[in-house]
Write a structure and sequence with these properties.
The protein is of the alpha+beta class. It has one domain. Helices cover 22% and strands 19% of the residues. The chain contains eleven helices and twelve strands. The strands form three sheets. Strands 1, 8, 9, 10, 11 and 12 form a six-stranded antiparallel β-sheet that branches. A four-stranded antiparallel β-sheet has the order 3-4-2-5. A two-stranded antiparallel ribbon has the order 6-7. α3 packs antiparallel against α5.
């Protein structure tokens, strides 16, 4: 009988690569939309510069309690669920408050990796927290339903209609909003199930959407995400440590109404990408539509991904290097009176449409202290002349007031329901 050779030990280089394939995206923060990143569609979180062991995919945890809710500045996760609820008929303020209390307790346990306290499915029983976050918000209709119309923020006024909108109202808006993200699919789904179980008898799902990003550790070194159009996202995004970050993203302590102190406003849009049409374009034409090179994300006329976008650069014929209708130019803060927003989207793929085209695109989520100064002016500009618009369909929309984080012993939204 021939001898069976022993497997050769892995060379040192293999060990190094194992570490390199750790959670490259586990550090860093979600990016702030800017002209250098392509505005409202492009500009997702740029990964940090360090590498971490593979085990950190499971062990990474974000705190539930704090001045702001998790899931706003937390690094992008690989799996996400967005779900909106409407209160069941007859649900009063006390019952709604009890639901937020249950949701908060559930979120605190799951985010700490204590699934046995809240996960009746046991789907996440063997896993760590896996960077799980749960974020809760309120739609405009909630305030009328609960007799809290005088507490509805002015910033929660309905978004204007845009000419490119083709909105399905059954998948838009909602009285309650929940965003779930995690780096493990089962952990994210277990959280979704736990949220739904806690809502039984009080609120009914209105719509649900599921998305994804590149898994932490999928690249040999930390780098920006790519979206479904194949474009690199997340270049040169300002970080939460920047001087004006809190002012642009979070409602100040003396903001109006007082219960929104430390909170933010989330705009949620389901944007289908016409991928078949897009992929038929030559790469050079795609780059002119976006204003960036596809291979490395560098702005047209620039050297690397992190080269600042130069909107004044001209070619030898005197024409703008970045076309006048390129997405990065039209959405740039420089062309929108400084309007910016924190973007934290997920991609989605929901099978095929009846014509065989992919039902795929972006679950766009952006955060700002005031959507009338963040999302609205940029989207109006894009609506009037963005070269990318012919390749997109805006199919669902929502605006939600997301209150500040809960302190120990409190629940999200307590200042609204009990203030």
């Amino acid at each position: 009988m021939p001898d069976t050779p022993e497997p050769a030990p892995a060379p040192p280089a293999a060990i190094s690569r194992r570490r390199l394939l750790g959670t490259a995206g586990a550090t860093g923060a979600a990016g702030l939309a800017a002209g250098a990143t392509g505005g409202t569609l492009f500009g997702t979180a740029h990964a940090g510069s360090g590498t971490t062991p593979l085990t950190s995919v499971g062990s990474t945890a974000h705190p539930f309690h704090g001045p702001h809710q998790a899931g706003i500045t937390s690094p992008l996760q690989a799996h996400g669920h967005l779900i909106a609820y409407d209160l069941d008929p007859g649900t009063d303020r006390r019952a709604a408050a009890a639901l937020l209390r249950r949701w908060s307790a559930t979120a605190a346990a799951l985010m700490a990796g204590r699934g046995e306290e809240a996960d009746g499915t046991h789907m996440s029983l063997d896993a760590g927290p896996c960077a799980l976050t749960l974020t809760f918000g309120f739609g405009a209709a909630l305030f009328d339903t609960l007799g809290l119309t005088d507490q509805r923020p002015t910033a929660l006024a309905p978004l204007p209609e845009f000419s490119n909108d083709a909105l399905d109202r059954s998948r838009s808006d909602g009285e309650l909003f929940v965003q779930i993200g995690a780096d493990d699919a089962l952990v994210a789904l277990a959280a979704l199930r736990a949220v739904r179980r806690a809502a039984l008898g009080t609120a009914t799902p209105r719509w649900q959407m599921t998305g994804f990003n590149r898994t932490p550790g999928a690249t040999a070194h930390p780098m920006s995400q790519r979206n479904l159009m194949g474009q690199i996202d997340g270049t040169n995004n300002p970080l939460p440590g920047d001087d004006d970050f809190d002012r642009r993203i979070f409602v100040p302590a003396d903001g109006d109404p007082p219960w929104m102190a430390g909170g933010s406003y989330a705009v949620v849009r389901r944007i289908r990408m016409l991928l078949d049409t897009w992929e038929d374009l030559p790469v050079a034409d795609q780059e002119r539509v976006i204003g960036r090179r596809k291979a490395d994300g560098a702005p047209l006329g620039g050297d690397t991904e992190t080269t600042p976008v130069d909107l004044t650069a001209l070619d030898d014929a005197g024409n703008p290097v970045i076309p006048v209708n390129a997405h990065v130019r039209v959405s740039s803060p420089e062309t929108n009176d400084g309007a910016t927003m924190l973007r934290r989207p997920f991609s989605y793929q929901d099978g095929l449409l009846p014509d065989g085209a992919p039902d795929a695109g972006l679950l766009f989520i952006c955060w700002q202290a005031d959507p009338l100064r963040g999302f609205v002016p940029v989207q109006r500009k894009l609506d009037r002349g963005d070269a990318l618009s012919p390749f997109l369909r805006h199919e669902a929309s929502g605006l939600f007031a997301v209150p500040g984080g809960a302190a120990e012993g409190e629940y999200v939204g307590q200042a609204l329901f009990e203030g």
